[in-house]
Structures are given as C-alpha cells and as structure tokens.
Amino acid sequence: MDKELMQALARRAGLDKALAEFPDDVAAAAAQAASVMAKINTPSDPRAEPWPPMRAGDGL
Amino acid sequence: MNVGVEAGHRRLHYMTVSDAAHAIATKALSPVELMEAHLARIETLDPTLNAFIRLDGEAALAAAKLAETEAAAGRLRGPLHGIPVGIKDIIDVAGLPTTCHSKILDGNMATADAVCVSKLRAAGAIVVGKLSTHEFAIGGPSFDLPWPPARNPWNPDHHPGGSSSGSGAGVAAGLFPMALGTDTGGSVRNPASCCGIVGLKPTYGLVSRRGVFPLSFTLDHIGPMTRNVEDNALMLEAIAGHDPLDPGSAAVPTGHYRAALDRGAKGLRIGFVRHFHEIDMPAEPEVTAALEHVMRALQMLGADVRDIKLPSLVEFAAVNRVILQSEALAIHGEWLRTRPGDYGKLARRRLMPGAFLTAGDYVTANKRRAEMIAAVNAALAEVDVLLCASSMDPACRIDRPADVERTYPRQARTPFNVTGHPALAMMSGLSKGGLPLSVQFVGRNFDEAMLFRVARAWEQASGMDKKHPPIG
After folding, report:
1. How confident is the model at residue A52 (pLDDT cuts 50, 70, 90)?
2. Catalytic-role residue among B102, B132, B163, B208
3. Cβ density class B216-249: b for 16+ within 10 Å, e for less
4. Domain ranges of chain B
5. Which residues of chain B are under the pLDDT cut of 50?
6. What's the CA gap between B356 and B344, in Å, rounded?
7. Is B187 an annotated catalytic residue?
8. How far apart are CA B353 and CA B200, in angstroms?
9. Are residues B114 and B211 in contact, defined by beta-carbon separation less than 8 angstroms?
10. Which one of the listed residues B18, B30, B88, B130 is annotated catalytic?
11. Is residue B242 a contact partner of residue B251, using CB atoms and an 8 Å limit?
12. CB of B444 within 8 Å of any CB in chain A?
C-alpha cells in the first residue's frame, strides 16, 4: 500500500490525530492489513453464505 | 490428601481446587486459613510477578470469614465454597474497576458482576482481585501502560504469555488456585502453555460473555485456568450455561464435565495435526519432541493415533486477524480517533489495521471461516479428539521486543477461535532451560468432557500437574 493511499484510508477512518501523532504506528497497521488478505484463499463457492459464524441458539 | 500436613506447611497454596473444596466441605480446612495462605503468597511473590492490577485482599478475607461461618453451619454455597479465584481485568467484578490494563479505562467502575463471575460466586468462589492482561486483551506485553506486565513464575525474565498473563502467572505460582481468562486468538491457552498450567477455551457460546469487555464479538471466549484437569472441569461446570442476554450464547445442555475424567484413552481415536508444527510453522525441536512423547504415551494407553490434515495454519491465522481486527475497530474506533495517545504502542498498532480492511475482506474471511469449520468438523467425524501444538517455542524473554514479536504468532491456537471448537492447552514437558512446553487437544463442539478425558489421561501418565515453578 503506497503512502498516499494509506493516508487517505486513515483519514477516511477518522484517524487524522493518530496519523499526525503516531505516523509509524498507522503505517505499521496499514502494512499488516495489506499483507494479511494475501494469505487467505478464495472461497470455493462464490455463492456460499458466510454463516454459521457464529450462530446463537442451538449452538454451532 | 493430608490436610493437616498441607495446612501446617507452606504448600497450602498448591492445594488443588477439588482437594481444598473437599477439605472445606468436611471442615478439615477453614476458608480463612486457605485465603490467608494465598494472601501471604501474593504479598511475597506479586512484587516480582505483577499478576495483579488490583488486589482486593480485605474483601476477600471478609468473604472467607463469612464462608467459614457458613461451612461451620453446614451451609455450602456450592462446589467451590471458599475457593479463591483471580479475574482477568477485562471481566467485570461489581465494585472494582475494569481497566482492561489501559489508561483509556482507568477508573472504569463495574456496577455488576459479569455472568461468569456471578456464577463463580454462586458456586462459592471468592474473588481475590483483578489480574494483568495485555491492553484490551491484544496489546502486550507492554511497558508503556499504567501497570507493568505480568512475568513468568518459571523465570521472571520471561514472558508468561498473554493476553490472560496475570491469570496464567498467578495460577502457576500458587497465588490463587484458579482464574478466569479470555481467549480471542489464544489468550487463555498461550499463558497456560507458557506457565505450565491447564487452560481451556470452551466451545463458542458455552460460557456467557456478558459483562466481559469485547475484543472481537465472534471470536471471544471465556475460559477456566487451573493447575490440573479435574479443577478445570470443575470450574467449567460452574461457569457454563445459556444466557439469553448474550447473543452468542448457545442453548445446549451443560455440566457433568468430570463424568468421563478417569475413563482413560483406551480405544479413543486421536488425530495428530502434524503439519501445523512440522510444515506450516516449524516448531523448536524440543517442542516437537515433547509432542511426539505425548502422542506415544497416548498410544501406550491404548489410543489409536492417526495423522489428520486441516487447512494451513497461516491461513487460519490470517482469517482470525481479518475478523478480529475488523470487529475490534468497530469497538475501539472512536477512542482511536480521539485518544490514540492513551493506548500503548502495541495495542494502537494491533487495533488500527481494521481501518485498512474492507467490508468485502471481512465477508471473504467469514466465508473461508465457514469452510474451515466444515473442515474441522469433518476431521472430528473421523476421530474423537485432535492433538496438535499450542506454542512453537518455550516462552521468550519479556524484555526483548524482537523475540516477543517473532514468537507471538508462532502458535496453533487461532484455528479454534476461528472455528469455535473447544481447545485445551497444557504442559507437555520442560525445556532444557526449565520452561514449560505445551500440547493442545481439540474436541467436537460442546464435547468438553472428551477433551478433559484425554487431557487427564496424559496428565496421569506424565505427572505434569505435580510440576511447579521454582519460585518462593
């Protein structure tokens, strides 16, 4: 994620103060988010619904 | 058990919950004597271990005196009558602050007990105080918070694991015989692994989360932490149960978790998830050797052990992170926007990634989660229990941030927060450096009794419950 996009997303989330006071922490958070999705495989069925997580009542 | 000998010597603090409860019930031990032994132990060791954020010793002693009067009159509140318990400081205890180990909530007074605390009190347990955690159960171990991090009683220069750090350190050191922890990515099982005790993440929905500060709504669990398996089952019996006011609570039958404790491992089918620690995230050799030893011991006891394959540990961890960080941002967003400087550095870094994930990322992670749940259910259709690693390393030094950063993700606990299956971590041996090594057992949903059965078989074969840290 390039710096401009990172800053735009941070501002969109209202993290202006964090961006001003803790720019390294915001950058580290952005880098972490960018890397994590790359480790998730594409779900096998695009029509599948993301349930049961986590269904109450009768249990899982 | 010889209560007279125990009470007359310094090892009263290492009595098990079940022995102490029995001794109190038969009037062989006074709850006051038990509490005083623990308070003395706390006074001696807690300046080194920092397990407590807030000790409530006076109230605990007053409650013990009342428990003594009740026991003398033959009125026992329940199976934990007079037993001290420590509570992780993200869990509400009426009349005490819930700080979540953070400046953000300093002075945040709880007006009511969390459901799990209320159930423990109803069973007769006595709260001794609030325990150290990683900030908001995610940012730690940290030295930039209002309270210091807890330390490992096996070696105070080492990390006790987290985020239920004070719970793990305190139970292992004999500051209290049982504690409540919470587990969103492994936070009961990590300190259990690092401190050599028994920590259970129950099935999602088995223990009410009401009154516990959330980290991630669909991953959060509350679990018991004790020094042996029987005590863990006893504690679970007290805290499990449907809560119609917790939207994640399951309406299932509970109790009788000790029923199968002594049936042994003969005839059980155990699936060994080797690829977690051999391929996905190669463990330290002594961790691997200890896991092999556990596997062989269970085989010797008559279990049928076979290899099982699950999705990769790396992907499980990624799914956990995306869900956790998305949900955590929904909880912490306003404070992160207005008070970022009131968080410690680690929590700030770990709570902000949700701002850079999309709604599509969150849904995709949950779709994979559904597939992962199906994969674990399929594995557990073939076997009764899974055996796998918990931590890939012994506890690292607490004062070396690079070591903490390196070892923290090297674990196999997050898969079962993602899937909701019950998972128990306990000691598998000791490292050459004298630190606990660990093993994890995973069961079918709501089949905690089977987990306890296998864990107890290993415990009895190995004597792990008799090993205590060389402190005090």
Report:
1. low
2. B163
3. bbbbbbbbbbbbbbbbbbbbbbbbbbbbeebebb
4. 3-466
5. 1-10
6. 20
7. yes
8. 28
9. yes
10. B88
11. yes
12. no
Told to judge if B165 belongs to the known catalytic residues of this protein, a careful annotator would answer no
* Structural element, H or E, at residue B183: strand B178-183
| Angle subtended at Cα B119 by Cα B118 and Cα B123, rounded to the nearest 5 degrees | 115
Q: Which residues of A touch B368 (CB under 8 A)?
A: 40-41, 43
Please tell me whether the overall predicted TM-score, pTM, comes out greater than 0.90 for this model.
yes
Q: Say what the pLDDT of residue B355 is.
A: 97
Nearest to A17 among B218, B337, B369 (CB): B337
Q: Which of residues 18-47 of A touch B (CB under 8 A)?
A: 18, 21-22, 25-26, 28-30, 32-34, 36-37, 39-44
Q: Which tokens sit at B152? A: 């490992």
Amino acid at B165: S
Q: Note whether B371 contacts A43, CB cutoff 8 Å.
A: yes
Instruction: Answer yes or no: do B333 and A53 touch at CB < 8 A.
Output: no
Domain ranges in chain A? 3-37
Q: Give the ipTM.
A: 0.93
**Which residue, chain included where needed, has tokens 């994969």?**
B375
The answer to whether residue B132 is catalytic is no
**CA B47 – CA A59 distance, rounded (Å):** 43
Q: Are B272 and B283 in contact (CB under 8 A)?
A: no
Q: Do B340 and A28 touch (CB under 8 A)?
A: no
Give Cα A20 distance to the centre of its chain: 21
The CATH class for the domain spanning B3-466 reads alpha beta
pLDDT for the residue numbered B398: 97
